[in-house]
């Protein structure tokens, strides 16, 4: 079974490398998102929920994800649904913009598994000693957990933004709605207004329902029954204020560096698989 799993991972790696040989633009051509921002002095410690895999019209650089942004949008922890190979796959990613120079950026990614239209992918981003991403498709054997040590550990304690995002590189939004359900966002602190306030949206028509919050033990738990990113355009609101004095654009997910990182992760796991 381990060798079959390894073969599947290697096949996915080869497909990813072949798909990403195409030339990408320098930045995403379209970004659509909805953002929840906790107030100054509070930080997010968990973001979990379920993402429904939409239709994939064709192979292309579609990147759909929930994620957690650092202050100033200087980095992002994200499980990314990618359509680059013509088959959806879900990958766990930590991207950190150390500098504006691409040479000073860190991009750590792990291939998780392939998924199909209609699959419900459960995700859980949670901070314990370090941040981790757990992914699973309930009712199947598809499951993965990866930990992400931060370059600057102190920054791991300061994450104010929970994001639902559609990132398109030379593509258009032609796959229908992107649906998230049973969402939980947990922050430290006692103010819960960020949960009940209407979230910021960029170039996105969305519907949110079943929003409730509880406060206890110096934590706020925001529960959202459903978040649907329906189509481009629509109900935008004021952008959340940056946590530092200088705001920067949201970083890209650095997908062009992915094949080398996938290869390293798979090759490092090869001896362990063969020895079991």
UniProtKB/TrEMBL annotation:
Keywords in alphabetical order: Signal
Signal peptide annotation: 1-19
Location of the region described as Disordered in the Swiss-Prot/TrEMBL record: 232-253
Biased composition (Polar residues): 243-253
The protein's name in its UniProt record: Uncharacterized protein
Organism: Mycena maculata
